[in-house]
């Protein structure tokens, strides 16, 4: 294969991958659990759930949390991102220790001060009189670590220092498309010749009360609390919402020319990326599906392919009634009456939100490597309105050279990636 693509841009190779998911730590454990159809969804143990409509999630309990108070979301995001990046960088064998030869693109949630910390400030500020906002400000003054955690730059700067990436780290959030956006930025930097390599991370740690309540108020979450492993049901007739989850994925991207020059093992290629937004509603997609269809088509065109050359689609597949309906609309519009197989790993690991696009890009690479389609579990009652091959319940052997990975976010932020086999 040539080092330049059909548009004369650098071909982008993946030389390292890392994962943290509710199925385990590391690529091998997470991928084995996925192919086995094992669910990582369980009852929430991190905080009390009395009086909550949803009491299940895809929690990741870090080793350092054992026997102590759970980490805040920013702390969890940083630790999981670091674990995934360590695996990816080590696997790529790139650069000297602590000297990654390229920029960092970090996809993460818009972290805020969480209620436990706010209540600590309130208790510190109380002096017998009525509590005033100025008292809270005074109690929070000097809390540098807290404010660094609650800004995008704090986590990105520390990860950049840890791995020795070059330039200013870029932290971004594009709702549920965030992880895919981080990869898209890395791909574009390499294609333009601005970098020979990039460290792209998607991380999420928002299984905490406030985020759970917010999504619950939107009626977006599954309430199948009595059967946690069976709660996430993408594309299935009885689906009723997604299951919140967390995790991280990291990918080391390089120009194919650079990877070959240093004798690196190429795990696969990022052939194309497509991005569209519909600016229709804060949570809903435009009913015409224009942005979803446009993102899928743009990614395939960017890869220099025709729809018929896509062998499998790694679905966004959240399990909400509307998302699965809209993704089906997009599939039929792009692929016609003979769409390729599609399946959703969210049936097993839940919706990892800001990490989802990056985690699913890794799963897409592994699908090609092992020629094995992961299943959509909990598929018991097919929905006649979804005429797709969703690889129900059991993994399947298949010939796969190119995968379309879909990420459709709240607010109509959509990013699709085309992943290809190593040359």
TrEMBL record:
<comment type="pathway">
    <text>Lipid metabolism; fatty acid biosynthesis.</text>
</comment>
<keyword id="KW-1133">Transmembrane helix</keyword>
<dbReference type="InterPro" id="IPR014030">
    <property type="entry name" value="Ketoacyl_synth_N"/>
</dbReference>
<comment type="similarity">
    <text>Belongs to the thiolase-like superfamily. Beta-ketoacyl-ACP synthases family.</text>
</comment>
<keyword id="KW-0812">Transmembrane</keyword>
<dbReference type="Pfam" id="PF00109">
    <property type="entry name" value="ketoacyl-synt"/>
</dbReference>
<dbReference type="GO" id="GO:0004315">
    <property type="term" value="F:3-oxoacyl-[acyl-carrier-protein] synthase activity"/>
</dbReference>
<dbReference type="Pfam" id="PF02801">
    <property type="entry name" value="Ketoacyl-synt_C"/>
</dbReference>
<feature type="domain" description="Ketosynthase family 3 (KS3)">
    <location>
        <begin position="9"/>
        <end position="421"/>
    </location>
</feature>
<dbReference type="InterPro" id="IPR016039">
    <property type="entry name" value="Thiolase-like"/>
</dbReference>
<dbReference type="InterPro" id="IPR000794">
    <property type="entry name" value="Beta-ketoacyl_synthase"/>
</dbReference>
<keyword id="KW-0472">Membrane</keyword>
<dbReference type="GO" id="GO:0005829">
    <property type="term" value="C:cytosol"/>
</dbReference>
<protein>
    <submittedName>
        <fullName>Beta-ketoacyl-ACP synthase</fullName>
    </submittedName>
</protein>
<feature type="transmembrane region" description="Helical">
    <location>
        <begin position="12"/>
        <end position="36"/>
    </location>
</feature>
<keyword id="KW-0808">Transferase</keyword>
<dbReference type="GO" id="GO:0006633">
    <property type="term" value="P:fatty acid biosynthetic process"/>
</dbReference>
<dbReference type="InterPro" id="IPR020841">
    <property type="entry name" value="PKS_Beta-ketoAc_synthase_dom"/>
</dbReference>
<dbReference type="InterPro" id="IPR014031">
    <property type="entry name" value="Ketoacyl_synth_C"/>
</dbReference>
